[in-house]
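Q: what does this look like with protoporphyrin IX containing FE bound?
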Amino acid sequence: MDSHFILRRISSLAGIVPIGLFLVYHLYMQLYLHSGAEIYNNEVNSFYDSPLATWALIIVVYIPLLLHSIMGVILVFDNKIQPSYTYFSHLLYWLQRLSGIGVLLFIIAHIWNAKLGPWIEGTWGTHFEHLSSGFTDPETGMITKTVYVLGVIGAVFHFSNGLNTFCMTWGIALTPTSQKRVRIFSYLVFIFLIVSTFYALSAIW
Amino acid sequence: MLDTLTFKIKRQNNAESSPYWENFVIQYIPNSNVISCLMDIQTNPVNSKGEKVAPVVWQSNCLEEVCGSCTMVINGKVHQACSALIDKLEKPIILEPMSKFPVIRDLIVDRSRMFDALKKVQAWVSADGYHDLGPGDSQSQSVQEVAYKLSECMTCGCCVEACPQYTKDNNFLGAAAINQARLFNIHQKGNDITEQRLDTLMQEGGISDCGNAQNCVEVCPKSIPLTESIAEIGRQVSGKLWRNIFKA
Ligand code: HEM
Ligand code: SF4
Ligand code: SF4
Ligand code: FES
């Protein structure tokens, strides 16, 4: 066992637990947008009531995400581009890398927009109002919405397709038949998360 | 009906010199293949400008897609030249040596890296010595059915040529070697060094260099289930990782 193997395995695992689970939880939380400002803000803020909230975020989200992102960015460049092999899974291989970079940029923008920005302004806590005013702003609303739509599609694709390659990497799905089953499952996860998130966002559109 | 054929060939005089393109126009013959056309060019090595040049060289042996030596990049995709039928190819036909190996001359490359990879994963049964070992253990029907398919690999290089993760400047062992490790790990006599093979595959250049692009399985001329082999080795190293953590 060398460090390359171990880092790849840790970063592959990190993509599912904890980051992937966090993504699913995070997208689920957005359904509360339909319950109105008060309930939504309460749901989000109540997480921070726990004394462990900050630590939990650092350990469960930020550190694994940082590790996975560094590994991911290295992987994006460690290969040879071979466009003449036009196979579907080869396309997915590149979309996995492209969406990884997209998600990285989105996460930076998202943390700035939803967390650091309001913190600095001292308006942090009124999440619903902040989000919906950002979405309906006559000048920048369209841009914000586009960034969120692309970010969500990218993150959900990256996670769903990642489930797929995860099962191959760890030897969970062995035969072509079981690999196909996992692939169909990942399509369903993709559709489910996309529909659920866009439904959630429709509350503040 | 075609009566002539144009070949655009990427040539190189020796390992050190730089490559150049040369066109050849030859008589079209129905049912010919890339090797038979290269033979035509060899008998009359005149390029499309009418200059007499050194004949284009290539490697081939079996001429029936079992030895793997004639593998080259034909119209952008890696394939055996002997089984690449002219009637099925787009024209003009573009021939290049494989891009992942050092070129020796014209279409001949040095595939030593693949054979070195087989050595690294010890893709053999380690029965040694001159004494009589008696009859070998018999192989069960179910193992035989899996093993036969895996054993058809001819080390042609298609899988690694098409793999985006196999580059000239990394040490990835490639799908073929991973598949052979699987073959000998299920062999009733070869499995005594399973752990050593897994050790090698858990080092740099091993299984963790695979990025799941799955081009290998698409291009393998022997239709070897390479992604199944990669997943199976992935499972074996997952087990070993577990054992290393909790039994160390
Ligand atoms: C922040 C920027 C990110 C970058 C640059 C990135 C990059 C990558 C890359 C290049 C791969 C391919 C690895 C491979 O094929 O072996 C990958 C796999 C994966 N990513 Fe990400 N990623 C990022 C964020 C995320 C997030 C937010 C999640 C969770 C939703 C995630 C989940 C996964 C999963 C589950 C895999 C599959 C692991 C495997 O194949 O074993 N990634 N990532
Ligand atoms: S696995 Fe298939 S493509 Fe790869 S070297 Fe063997 S026969 Fe060729
Ligand atoms: S699955 Fe993709 S990355 Fe892995 S060996 Fe095959 S072609 Fe290369
Ligand atoms: S000459 Fe043997 S495979 Fe083509």
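The mean pLDDT of chain B is 96. The CA atoms of residues 45 and 51 of chain B lie 8 Å apart.
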